[in-house]
Design goal:
With 157 residues, this protein is of the alpha/beta class. It has helices spanning 13-16, 27-30, 42-45, 66-73, 86-95, 105-108, 138-145, 149-156; strands spanning 2-6, 51-54, 78-81, 99-101, 114-118, 123-126, 129-132. The longest helix has 10 residues, at 86-95.
């Protein structure tokens, strides 16, 4: 079980990590500024195994790989949303952060609720309810378990 940090529709990558922090040399230095304009305490509150939940079009805006990277570096287990901007989705898979589509969950849960995600079943449990979500194919689960597409490809060589 992890805690939910809930955000709005059309959350853009600049709200995840503002452009001025992209100049910092490492993701470790950037991660302390995650969601700074929306919740300055987010990096201190989030714990490994927690979840970010959003509405429609999560991760729209710039195609910065640092947006999913700072979430992963903070220990976010997965991002669950009604829909994702295509480039954010691709970047998240590339770096090994699960991104799960679930149409019903964001309308039912609130910030601070707890949830549990089963990637293999394609099910989220929260508040005594079960929600159907993206059931990732085995090959994609393998990519995620190896740390993302790049890490997976490097292991094949």
């Amino acid at each position: 079980m992890g805690k939910i940090f809930k955000f709005h529709n059309d959350l853009d990558t600049d709200q995840i990590i503002a452009s001025q922090y992209l100049l910092l040399p490492t993701i470790e230095e950037m991660k302390v500024h995650t969601f700074e304009s929306l919740d300055p305490q987010f990096p201190q509150k989030v714990q490994p195994g927690d979840y970010v939940v959003g509405g429609e079009n999560f991760g729209c805006g710039s195609s910065r790989e640092q947006a999913p990277s700072v979430l992963k570096a903070l220990g976010v287990e997965a991002v669950v949303a009604k829909s994702f901007a295509r480039i954010f989705y691709r970047n998240a898979i590339n770096i090994g952060l699960p991104v799960i589509v679930c149409k019903e969950l964001p309308d039912v849960v609130t910030d601070g609720d707890e949830m549990e995600l089963s990637l293999t079943e394609g099910v989220i449990r929260s508040g005594g309810q079960e929600f159907s979500c993206t059931k990732l194919p085995e090959y994609m689960q393998q990519i995620l378990s190896q740390g993302g597409l790049i890490a997976s490809l490097n292991k094949e060589v």
